[in-house]
Prior knowledge:
By secondary structure, the protein is of the alpha+beta class. Among the domains are: 3-101 and 282-346, Lamin Tail domain (Immunoglobulin-like); 114-277, Galactose-binding domain-like (Jelly Rolls, Sandwich), CATH 2.60.120; 350-428, Sandwich (Immunoglobulin-like), CATH 2.60.40.10; 917-1078; 1082-1181. Helices cover 14% and strands 35% of the residues. It has 14 helices and 73 strands. The chain starts with a strand and ends in a 6-residue tail after the last strand.
Amino acid sequence: MLHRITFSLLLFGMISVHAETNPLRINELLASNRGSSLDDSGASSDWLELHNTGDEVLRLAKFQLSSGGDKPSAWALPNIAIEPGGYQLIWMSGQDRVALSPEALRTSTATLPFESTLVPADAKWKYLVPSRRGGLADDWTAVEFGDSKFALGQAGFGYGDDDDATELPVGTGLVLLRHTFQLPEQPLSQSLVLEVDFDDGFVAYLNGTRVAAVNAPDEKLDANSMATEGREAGTADRFDLSAHVDLLRKGKNVLAIAGLNAGRGSSDMSLIAGLGFLPTTLHASFRLAREGGEIKLSAPDGQVVDSVRYGEQVTDQAYGRAQTEAGELGFFLTPTPGEPNSGPQQAKPVESKLKFSPKPGVHEAGVKVSITAEASGAVDIRYTRDGAEPTAESQRVDGPIELDKTGLFRAAAFVGGERVGAIKSATYLIGRQPTLPVISISMKPEDFYEVHMRSSASGRGSERTSHMEIFNTKGNRKVSTGFGLRLHGGAGRRGDFNTKKSYRAYFRDVYGSPKVKYNIIPTADVKDFDKLVLRANANDRAPGGAYIRDQLMRDLHKDMGGLVSNGTWCMLYVNGKNYGVYNVVERMDEEFMASHTGKGEYDVIKTGNTILSGTRDAWEDLRRFVESTDLSKKENYETLKRRVDIDDFTAYMIVNLWGQNYDWPHNNWYAARKLPDDKWRFMCWDSEWGIRGGPYKPDTSSYAFIDSGGAYGFGTQRKMFIALLGNPEYREFYQAEVRRHLGGALSEENVLRRARQLRDFIADEVTHEYRVRRYNIETWHRKIGEVEEFGRMAGENFRRWTNDYFAFRNKPLSNDGLARLQNMAGYRHIVHRNADGKWSELIASPGSDDWAAAALPLSPPAAGRPALFALTAAERRLVYRGKDGHIYEHASASSAGTNGDWTTQNLTKALGLPKAAADPSVVIANGVPHVFYVDELGGIRELWNDGQWRQFPLPAMPRAEGGAVASLDGSTLRVIYRSMFGVPYEQSLRLDSATPENRTWHTEGVHRLPALGQPLGLTVNGRRDAVFHVDRAWPRQLPYTFDWNERRRVPGYFTYEGDRNALVYAQEIGQRFKNQYHVAHTTDQLDGEFTLFRDAKNNRHYLAFRDTEGGIRESELQGEEWAMTRPSELASAPQAKGDPIGWAEAKTGARHYLYQSENSDVHQLSFDGKWTHQSLSPKVE
């Protein structure tokens, strides 16, 4: 039996005793540990056990262990204590350490439990979901913070997964947690560990100090903070807080955690945390010798208080003292680390070796199997047939055993009730000989059931001891070794015991061979493997799958020059039962990278930003660089090329986009780099949704998906790709690479060749599996046909989508709207464009209702609507797009506006920026004007003047079509627009964390309905919503239909059933596809663009638009409904020819609309208890 060794240490209040009492003894040692016990790193180190035979706590400071022989070694024990009658295990690994190994902190490798728990994983916490309109208290993480407004709930916290103990509101973006705990004394242990399972990010604070964070903003959190990346919960990560243990204090302490969601449109969120001390493990500076030696224990005064001389040792048989007064030394067949020695003591070790005859493999029915033993003494051989480990009560071998069907033996030798030596497994394949290699796994049935059914289990703790045999296609056994088996995968973990699932095999010396030295995967160019993944192809398996999609994608990526997880096929048997065809592939980790790219240390990271080796540091640096850097600049592009293998990354993106792998890049990815400063490379994984394997139709453009669809917002890879497309050099390189690969690795000829190779390789065994499971084999042939059809069509489709995407140019828009300004001196200004591109202005003096007309001095002719603003009482500034596409600032230092004091500056030319294809939008924040415009390629540019004009592109954003509208929401800049694929998007930037060189924008999209025209955003009681004009046409290539997962998982989800060609109100309630309501009475009435504003005095929201008859219509948000009126009709106002602009007065709440009539006069509609109309244009006498 495999034991994970832990032991008890006193963390508080230890008592010292004098060493001269000599109660300490060497009680037991194991000099050849094959796996009966594991240390904190999961290794089967040899060990030695000390026993405190006294009746007082004994401190080990200055005690010493030493070895004899020609090269004696000595090791001083640390200042820890053993309780009366207690035991202390010392790993004789030669590592000379007391602290935990890094592996003990990673649940993917080890699950060493807490020795002392400060905050249990199921603890009750005080929690608060803060209002988005309010701030966060600066001291909410402090011990003495008053959390009376926090609710009480039990971990875990979250929504959307039906497994949260405390349900948070759907759409929660941030939750604050506090748990207080008491310490009777300052702790002596240094092994403080935080354990967190989370979706999507968190920041942890211990007594007010930030101690750990993942997927969290670098800046101070506020009520609108979000996770920077996505991560699925299910595996807890551990964080070493030993450097922060001094933050703990006697008495009251607090662990505070901010849980972060990747977006309020996310379908789920989760957070479970615990805090505690791991056992302080001891590793001596020298090893035990299997061939024998001497070990001495010396007291602080140098006196040898005990010594053991031992001879040659046998694997997994301990040498120790009998539980007698004399304490005689001898062998124990069953080691008992950390416990009293038990079982009959043997004077010498017992050895036994089993033999099966004939050899395991393929045989005819009726074969007779003999099991015999070569032993140093009399033994019984006992065996099982169901995978169970044999015991002293199992069936005894009394002669040959006849087999008439495929079967398994697990056998071992016994002396009395104790096992001698390892369990041996042997599989006999009777009758039909498979055409694929066979992997036969044997293990305890209850262990296999646990592995198979515990869908949420992960890490080393979920691994169970097993045995693997590998047979070649001739039926010869090539491998027989112990290993550790885990469940593998994500969604494929679900299902009952009859569901075909994927597994992961770990080869370690604790089980048997540390590596399988057999070319089970011939294409891998690797002759030994420390891990294998046995893929069931959960989304591509029988009875409705083709089996080959994922392997085909990896084969094609390899043909393109990519680094891939190589794979082959086998038949899998577990405890004698045939589980069908499996795809055997390499596990991508540090060992994989070393095997394929050279020895060394690596950062390896996968889906959910899960670290397999190394650290997150470089990956987080890359993410921050991509999100905040203008990659259109050559110097920044060159910097990225030094950090990322651009050729490799481009091939990786192309194969996934070509293959329509739409369960990516938010999922199913790997990235790695060699330390210290090699380039990042990217590897495909689990592409079963590609090549017509997912819920998308094959005519869905991959660029719609990666730019504006289900992929948006997920993953550094996607952000990096979109950001790179802003660089002219990379755009040309990428298109050239598409053409090259479509003529080579992704050509119809090569795709069909690869697909048919895979088909033919597995056809016989798939047919057999279908027949055994009583499936219709024609289904498989039909699915293979779909793969081949995709291979014939994909190249041309992808070529067309690529050409269309890169040929896109944002068409210039012309808008005859008005701009208005009331400056600090009280002057009111209205500016509009004339047909010749010149500007006309209406001016009213402070307190006057008389408006004077003026023509602004000559400036470059304008196209579209201007933006009008002032920074001082004695000026006004006009920013507009010229007919030549440049952005101009036309400024006057005079409120009254004499024609001689105007100056004009070409901003885009001065800053070296591309021309605009839409009108600019301006917002003033802290006295600084921020100008936003959309260029011809669909990129959004920000210009601002903080004493000098600066510029920065909004990086990694979906490409815009039309214009963009900016607004200020507290200290957050927001820019809303429609992507080239018709998706409304809003970018947001926290100004308090932005610098001229680092501007990290965050994005939220409104999927499911295609938009037409300019969307607008609004904040309703702290919730950010949007209004947009839904398009009448529903283009086939748009990525809105992917909502099947939301329908299944999100409570209250519904499908929009309103009219098309109407205004839609998209309400953010949590799912990625926001609830969308029809705005009343707008169908077929909206003409042009609408305006949207808030009455701050009365906290009401209004939208208005020009209808098809020229009337002005207004709609007020009342709860979730919009009430419609027609102010122009109520005020008997003339018809409009342009779009209205609206606002509400801050003091009174009175609201107004400006518009131009058919004769170009300017009119104002006002409501202050009733609707009135005024013509503002002076009458011509």
